[in-house]
Amino acid sequence: IMREMVMPHHTNPQNTIFGGTVMSWIDIAAAMCAEKHAATPVVTVNVSDIDFISPIKVGYHVCIRASLNYVGKSSMIIGVSVHSFNPRTTERRKTTKAYVTFVALDEFGKPTKVPELKVTTDEEKRRYDNAKKRVEALKKLEKELVK
To answer: Given Cys at both, which of 32, 53, 131, 134 links 70, Cβ 3.0 to 4.6 Å?
Structure first.
């Protein structure tokens, strides 16, 4: 979990947070999650299904939650959800979601094996199954596309 507060320098001309700032926060939170699991440096290799659901205004508090959803040989898929909180009204909203894939690196900067993911709760199993379906669908799509 990572928390931020939206300051004027984070905003666009509509006085809401700039999407690139939210994307940066998502990448940082997801990288910390992946690095904690891998216990090695990690790099972002893919950001998918990023959805901006509702705007975040100046002064709002932001909570970025990153969860390890799936582990391959050297890659990890992190699901990230972003919620805003208006400290004056206590309104809380889901504002953004995304899936970020990372690869773990060894001391030479080459992909390295990561520990397997142990899923125990129903929620962890649901996230794992959904991420596995994403991986399979992406592989199928890549085969069908002309490169």
So the answer is: 131
Contacts of 10 (CB under 8 A, 6+ apart): 17, 18, 21, 58
CA dist., res. 28 & res. 71, Å (int):
18
The pLDDT of residue 147 is 63
Concatenated DSSP letters of 40-100: S-EEEEEEEEEEE-S--BTT-EEEEEEEEEEE-SSEEEEEEEEEEE-TTT--EEEEEEEEE
* 69 neighbors 103 (Cβ within 8 angstroms): no
Q: How far apart are CA 58 and CA 56, in angstroms?
A: 7
Q: Which residues of 99-116 are buried (b: 16+ CB within 10 A; e: fewer)?
A: bbbbbbbeeeeebbebee
Q: Estimate to the nearest angstrom the gap between the alpha carbon of 37 and the chain centroid.
A: 14
The stretches in the chain having pLDDT less than 50 are: none
* pLDDT for residue 142: 86
Q: How far is the first Cα of the chain from the last one, in angstroms, to the nearest whole number? A: 38
pLDDT of residue 40: 97
| Its pTM surpasses 0.90 | yes
Residues 77, 70 contacting (CB under 8 angstroms): yes
Rounded Cα gap, residues 68 and 144, in angstroms:
28
